[in-house]
Fold this protein.
Amino acid sequence: MPLGNRYRTAPGAGTLAALILVLIFGSPWYADWAGKNTDPDTAGGWWLRLLAWPHWRFSSSDSVREVVAADLKAILLVVLTALFLVLLPGSQLARARGTISQFFAGWAAYIFAGGFAALLTTLILANPSLLGAFRAAGDGATYGLFVGWIVGLATLGGRRGTG
């Protein structure tokens, strides 16, 4: 029996959207395409390259630590999105489906998840520094700000995650 819209939760829909974004736009194939076929000095090219930020990869030329850090960043982005969607009150306390609070909760969850995923994975790199961690968190939050509206739209219309 297919699940209809009335069974969809806002946190579940937002997490699924985050997973799809990471799987498609974080793939090595998309990242290579965006790097070769877009101009970073245009708004469209910059945004298409930004979509590839939580890239996951598997390459024999990279160190194991770098590959694990990149893959962990993509995994943590999805896991932390789910966590923040459950914890943020917009998706939990919205009385009516489709309220603007669900949209902003989904968007904010992706911003927070991007920042924290980058911050945590920076500590795994060979020579982590506080400045590097702050820069990485800023990059993750920037990604969440410009891409998180997609997760916000996905959460619209979902019922509360509890009860």
